Amino acid sequence: GEQVEQLPSILRVQEGSSASINCTYENSASNYFPWYKQEPGENPKLIIDIRSNMERKQTQGLIVLLDKKAKRFSLHITDTQPGDSAMYFCAANNAGAKLTFGGGTRLTVRP
Amino acid sequence: GGIITQTPKFLIGQEGQKLTLKCQQNFNHDTMYWYRQDSGKGLRLIYYSITENDLQKGDLSEGYDASREKKSSFSLTVTSAQKNEMAVFLCASSIWDWGGGSQNTLYFGAGTRLSVL
């Protein structure tokens, strides 16, 4: 099945700096790449997504980049705040509705 | 808005026991999913269903069965619980826009926490 590799698994940054998380996927037919944020004790929630017809998308301090050739996509959080501390998951679809998640990144933003 | 209800919230089982987890959604979504999340780890897809009566294996289907009884409900069975197993099982639903639109958000339930003695 589709493998989605996510790095790093742990990320610690200083408040106000940026944080970057990278993911790679295997299936060249994948066309949908969402990012989910999971806070402690909560369920995952979609924060941003990108489709294969785009290379870049930005919303509210979040930037996602997609490099289809390299089968790589990334999330960049600009001006991080303590409230950004959470688990982040990338995902890619495989054969339509099958959504495979990466292993997760635990982000800690130090005040 | 809608809601996804997973029952039970906590499930304690015995080794070898068959255990059933239930999920109900009132979003009227076609597509439903079951994921397993081990502590501090990622989500692994067990089964998903594109529409009522459809069933598709995920990457972790061995040891599980699933049933999409009707559009609003999707149940998961652990066929033989493994000793000392601990995980959270998350159900999710989505419209899933096949045309590549913006409706592919997965909405997750609160999870069922499984412990096997």
Description:
The complex is a heterodimer of chains A (111) and B (117). Chain A has 111 residues and is mainly β. Chain A contains no helices and eleven strands. Helices cover 0% and strands 59% of the residues of chain A. Chain B is mainly beta. Chain B is built from no helices and eleven strands. Chain B has strands at 4-7, 10-13, 19-25, 31-37, 43-49, 56-57, 64-70, 73-78, 86-94, 107-108, 112-116. In chain B, a hairpin with a 2-residue loop joins strand 7 (64-70) and strand 8 (73-78). The termini of chain B are far apart. The relative contact order of chain B is 0.33.
Spell out the key features of this protein.
heterodimer, A: 111 residues, mainly beta, 5-stranded antiparallel β-sheet, 11 strands, B: 117 residues, 7-stranded mixed β-sheet, 4-stranded antiparallel β-sheet
Itemize the secondary structure elements and their pairings.
The complex is a heterodimer of chains A (111) and B (117).
Chain A: E1 4-7, E2 10-14, E3 19-25, E4 32-38, E5 45-51, E6 56-59, E7 62-67, E8 72-77, E9 86-94, E10 98-101, E11 105-110
Parallel strand pairs in A: 2-11
Antiparallel strand pairs in A: 1-3, 3-8, 4-5, 4-9, 6-7, 7-8, 9-10, 9-11
Chain B: E1 4-7, E2 10-13, E3 19-25, E4 31-37, E5 43-49, E6 56-57, E7 64-70, E8 73-78, E9 86-94, E10 107-108, E11 112-116
Parallel strand pairs in B: 2-11
Antiparallel strand pairs in B: 1-3, 3-8, 4-5, 4-9, 5-6, 7-8, 9-10, 9-11
The pLDDT mean of chain A sits at 94
Most extensive protein-chain contact, per-chain counts: A-B, 27 and 26 residues
Order of helices and strands of chain B: EEEEEEEEEEE
Portion in helices of chain A? under 10%
Shape of chain A: globular
Beta-strand residue fraction of chain B: over 45%
Low-confidence stretches of chain B: none
Which structural class do you get from the secondary structure elements of chain B?
mainly beta
Number of strands of chain B: 11
How many beta strands in the DSSP annotation of chain A? 11
> What helical percentage do the residues of chain B reach?
under 10%
